[in-house]
Design goal:
single chain, about 140 residues, alpha/beta, 7-stranded mixed β-sheet
């Protein structure tokens, strides 16, 4: 079994638009990188760790228009996207109006602080605060 925390890095972009998080390392293994937006840093890290485990350890192929129903209460739709490095990637999106989403619990973007490594499931965390980092 592959320990994804040892081979996949998570990179964060924290800005006025909210928090973005994307993987780094899947493309080296022949997979598309994965990104997610509009989640708090801990939730984004746990979600991407969960999906990376599906890809690397359970050998599940991700496809655009596929829905991930087995992570939490909110389903995530997989969409085609472009990675920050211009390569094909997958983006996980969710219905922000879903009854299980409680946006009032998330801090406003100007109060979001840098991720604390012990709160992130993937432990290789690099933070970028410039939205231009994602292209």
């Amino acid at each position: 079994m592959v320990d994804v925390t040892q081979i996949i890095a998570l990179r964060y972009v924290i800005g006025d638009f909210g928090v973005g998080c994307y993987t780094e390392g899947l493309s080296v293994l022949g997979y598309r990188e994965i990104q997610v937006w509009h989640l708090d840093v801990e939730s984004a890290g746990k979600l991407l760790n969960f999906v990376c485990n599906k890809v690397l350890n359970e050998k599940q192929n991700l496809e655009a228009e596929q829905v991930i129903n087995d992570y939490g209460l909110v389903p995530f739709l997989i969409m085609d996207a472009i990675s920050p490095y211009g390569e094909k990637a997958f983006q996980l999106i969710y219905d922000r109006e879903h009854p299980a989403v409680r946006p009032g619990l998330l801090p406003p973007p100007n109060l979001v602080t840098a991720p604390i490594s012990q709160n992130i499931t993937c432990d290789h965390v690099r933070q970028y605060e410039d939205a231009k980092e994602l292209g």
